[in-house]
Amino acid sequence: MDVDPHFSTQTKARKAALDILFQADLLGLDPRDVLREQQALAEHPFRPLTTAIVEGVGEHGEAIDRRIRACTRNGWTIERMPCVDRTLARIAIYEIDHSDVPNAVAIAEALELASWLSTNSSESFLNGLLGQAVRQANAD
């Protein structure tokens, strides 16, 4: 699915990362391998932000998933989350924990993409999960 033409360059870069990470999740592949495969097929190089997110989620995937599990409530497992939501959470947690992107930007970008690509309840679910992630990070 193409992105909304009104999205910022950063949002488009995150959407491209989402596509790669989503594919890797569905196929059970390392996201970095999918990135290399997709880059070989692409007409133009991926934006640096796209590459950084995919490589970062690939490198820190286990820690990111642990953080997501620690932030969910009422027995809601990461496996139970819709794949789009799980992937957006991974991107945002990567940015919160492993990049210099401001937390508010990481959350806002995830929520914007969720509002466009996922279920009606995804925005509020992700907002709660990511808010909890920020609170936990600040408590450490």
Question: How would you sum up this structure, described in words?
Answer:
With 140 residues, the protein is mainly α. The chain has one domain (9-139): NusB-like (N-utilizing Substance Protein B Homolog, Chain A). Helix content is 74%, strand content 0%. It has helices spanning 9-27, 31-41, 48-71, 83-98, 103-117, 122-139. The model has no long low-confidence stretch (mean pLDDT 93).
Short synopsis of the structure:
This protein is an all-alpha fold.
Q: Major sheet, described briefly?
A: none
List the domain count as a whole number.
1
Architecture in CATH?
Answer: Orthogonal Bundle
> Can you identify the CATH class?
Mainly Alpha
State the fourth-level CATH superfamily.
Answer: NusB-like
How many beta-strand segments?
0
Principal-axes shape call: globular
Average pLDDT reading: 93
Helical proportion? Answer: over 70%
| Number of alpha- plus pi-helical segments | 6
SSE series: HHHHHH
**Separation of the first and last Cα atoms:** 39 Å
Beta percentage is: under 5%
What's the alpha carbon Rg, rounded to whole Å? 14 Å
Structural class: mainly alpha
Low-confidence stretches: none
